[in-house]
Amino acid sequence: MTGICDNYLGAFAVSLRASLAQMGWLMAAPQLAGALFQLLSVWLCPRFSRRRAIVTGVVMQALAVLGMAGIALSRPDNAVTWLIGFAILYQASANFVQPQWRGWMGSVVPPRRRGAFFAGRTRLTMITSFTVFAGGGALLGLFQRYELAWLCFGGLFLLAAVGRGTSAHQLRHMHDPDHSGERAAISFTTTLSRVREAFRDKTFYQYSLFIAGMQSAVAISAPFFSVYMLRDLNFTYWQFAANTGVAILTQFFTLSV
């Protein structure tokens, strides 16, 4: 799903003739919502079963991508506005799941095997994402010749929604050794106070500033790369996929070292 939804979201917005301001909102608003929902996840999930919280978040992601497919196939007048809304739902759901997912995997995978497990899992995820991304680029390039790129976008998003729905079904049957619903619930103010306490640690504080600075620098130009490649450089969708896919391959080979 990541190989389709995350990597082709900007290209889809360009095909909808989104303005530069709308491209900025498309990238910024979902990231902000995602950051807020990570904090909400830490506060809210102790009140519920961890598996139920994760499955709910994944189902919401599938519905968000299904909504994107609906936009591609119906092409409403306010399509970009709807796309921004579904992108916010998608990113918020993804980040809501992340803290609980990491805790779940940490309780399932033995400590001595975590490094090898997560490295292997990341390599498999990346090569799968690259394969799907490259295949999507080839299909979009083919459909573009017949001015049917909108139909291909719809099909790709439908495929991503089905994949995420299948993930939710599989996660629902996974074993969770931690009974999250039995833990004592904490207040939201307590969660915020713990965040403040974490920033008193010098290493955590410096690392957080480093990550924030790096992400801020990337965020200045990231929303507009799709516009630049597809509108200004007149890249085909296949060229766009090949250019963007290099980054995925680079990460894959770096992990293999």
Automatic annotation (TrEMBL):
Lineage top rank: taxon: Bacteria
* Calcium found in the keyword field: no
**TM spans (from-to):** 25-46, 53-73, 79-97, 122-142, 148-166, 204-225, 237-255
Residue ranges annotated as coiled coil are: none
SUPFAM superfamilies, A to Z: MFS general substrate transporter
Name the keywords, alphabetized.
Membrane, Transmembrane, Transmembrane helix
Q: Does the keyword Membrane apply?
A: yes
Q: Which GO terms describe its molecular function?
A: transmembrane transporter activity
Q: Which PANTHER family match?
A: INTEGRAL MEMBRANE TRANSPORT PROTEIN-RELATED (PTHR23526), MAJOR FACILITATOR SUPERFAMILY (MFS) PROFILE DOMAIN-CONTAINING PROTEIN (PTHR23526:SF2)
Q: Supply the name of the protein.
A: MFS transporter
